[in-house]
Amino acid sequence: MRLTSLEVTNVRNLQSVSLNPHSRTNFIVGPNGSGKTSLLESISLLSNGRSFRSADSKKLIAQGSDQLVVFGKVCAESLKESRLGISKDSMGNTNARLDGERLSKVSVLAKMLPSIAIDTSSVELIEGGPSLRRSMLDWGLFHVEHSYLDAWSQYRAALRQKNALLKSTASVTAHQVNYWNAVLERYGERLDTERMQYVDALIVYTQRIFKHYFGSDVDIQFRYRAGWNRHEYPKFADCLNSKVESEIERRSCVYGPHRAELDILWGGTLAKDICSRGQKKLVLYGVRLAQISLMLDRTGVSPVLLLDDLPAEMDKKNIENVTQFLTEFPCQTFITAINEQSIDDTLLAGLMDHTMFHVEHGTLR
């Protein structure tokens, strides 16, 4: 997938910016606060309706404005061109469009323009809580398994209803809880099975990335844990049926895929506990590049890669490794840097087929 044009209006300090990106590599250069990261955020907004830096879209709207707008054209591997657009206003309303038609779901944009963003906070994938790793798995499955989004949406809808029931002031009965448990079991088993299969495949791809691109034989493993005790309850339904009274007492949905965890292991130990900051960045890149490779093999589609300040985030050797990956995989990539001098010669030499954009005070030149 390729972004062939981008128009940004009122995203942070970008009042009105347009560009025609290179099909492979795009360097976005500018001092801190110039708006270069805001360009990456704009692409993220167009891709999935939100920024990778802030969950509050109101903070993205330029000061003094009541609405932001991002418009772009994308070209699929089939060479078919589509027009995407998204706007968000200060009231919290979102309007997403595809070829001029209003969309009821922003997830349609994600299918049209998949993207992966890596910035300074992305190491939280290794250090942070389980919800970040669940989201990573869900992103991968959304793009490689066509039925996954439906199962995930149905499960989340039933989960919201069950939680509302458990937290209600009225007396809750087991019969009422079991109604929603039946729905959760139906879709929860599917989610859990597909996640386990995806993790098994991702382990293979991650180890391959580490060995081929990072020259490392370190034993990277994943350990997926369902959101319930599978040893005691092999079937999700058995757990739900057994824990009805417990959940009524706790007034919360305690068991299920929404409580699953993915442990990332380095030599058999949790990476977040044993790895240095540099090693955690290595694991982060290894896992995300593995997702790109897996997605490309399964679907023939590669996501747009957004790398915020890559020259400052990686050492020279690993910049060389990432550069080798980018030259061998057909990813359209956007890389920010403070200035041209900060861009490693390895990057420029390896990614000769590129365009350099300069941003200053929210203006592109």
Automatic annotation (TrEMBL):
<dbReference type="GO" id="GO:0005737">
    <property type="term" value="C:cytoplasm"/>
</dbReference>
<dbReference type="InterPro" id="IPR027417">
    <property type="entry name" value="P-loop_NTPase"/>
</dbReference>
<dbReference type="GO" id="GO:0003697">
    <property type="term" value="F:single-stranded DNA binding"/>
</dbReference>
<dbReference type="InterPro" id="IPR001238">
    <property type="entry name" value="DNA-binding_RecF"/>
</dbReference>
<keyword id="KW-0234">DNA repair</keyword>
<dbReference type="GO" id="GO:0005524">
    <property type="term" value="F:ATP binding"/>
</dbReference>
<dbReference type="GO" id="GO:0006260">
    <property type="term" value="P:DNA replication"/>
</dbReference>
<protein>
    <recommendedName>
        <fullName>DNA replication and repair protein RecF</fullName>
    </recommendedName>
</protein>
<dbReference type="GO" id="GO:0000731">
    <property type="term" value="P:DNA synthesis involved in DNA repair"/>
</dbReference>
<feature type="domain" description="RecF/RecN/SMC N-terminal">
    <location>
        <begin position="3"/>
        <end position="344"/>
    </location>
</feature>
<keyword id="KW-0235">DNA replication</keyword>
<keyword id="KW-0067">ATP-binding</keyword>
<keyword id="KW-0742">SOS response</keyword>
<feature type="binding site">
    <location>
        <begin position="30"/>
        <end position="37"/>
    </location>
    <ligand>
        <name>ATP</name>
    </ligand>
</feature>
<dbReference type="GO" id="GO:0006302">
    <property type="term" value="P:double-strand break repair"/>
</dbReference>
<keyword id="KW-0238">DNA-binding</keyword>
<dbReference type="InterPro" id="IPR003395">
    <property type="entry name" value="RecF/RecN/SMC_N"/>
</dbReference>
<comment type="function">
    <text>The RecF protein is involved in DNA metabolism; it is required for DNA replication and normal SOS inducibility. RecF binds preferentially to single-stranded, linear DNA. It also seems to bind ATP.</text>
</comment>
<dbReference type="InterPro" id="IPR042174">
    <property type="entry name" value="RecF_2"/>
</dbReference>
<keyword id="KW-0547">Nucleotide-binding</keyword>
<keyword id="KW-0227">DNA damage</keyword>
<keyword id="KW-0963">Cytoplasm</keyword>
<comment type="similarity">
    <text>Belongs to the RecF family.</text>
</comment>
<dbReference type="GO" id="GO:0009432">
    <property type="term" value="P:SOS response"/>
</dbReference>
<dbReference type="Pfam" id="PF02463">
    <property type="entry name" value="SMC_N"/>
</dbReference>
